[in-house]
Structure prediction request, 91 residues.
Amino acid sequence: MKIAPDKKLHLIAGLLVGVAAVFVLTKYGFATKEQRIFVASMAAFLVGVGKEIKDKFTPGSTVDVMDAVYTGGGGVVGSVAATFLIPFLNN
Prediction:
């Protein structure tokens, strides 16, 4: 399956948001691993939705719900990866 370049950018953006959110949540001792993954994934998804809302009001831009889905998916991947890599980085 070939992924369009635009979708790859959304996936990468979501991944970065997910990783960053997990690092911040972990630094401040936010709850359990599962909760950190959930909150970081939702943060990425909300960034994707926010970007699509911005596109709706930007002349020349198109709204694509799948962009938000790819951003959220990247957030899931990034938050899970970061959650399980953090213990190795702290040693």
User: Anything to note?
Assistant: The mean pLDDT is 94.
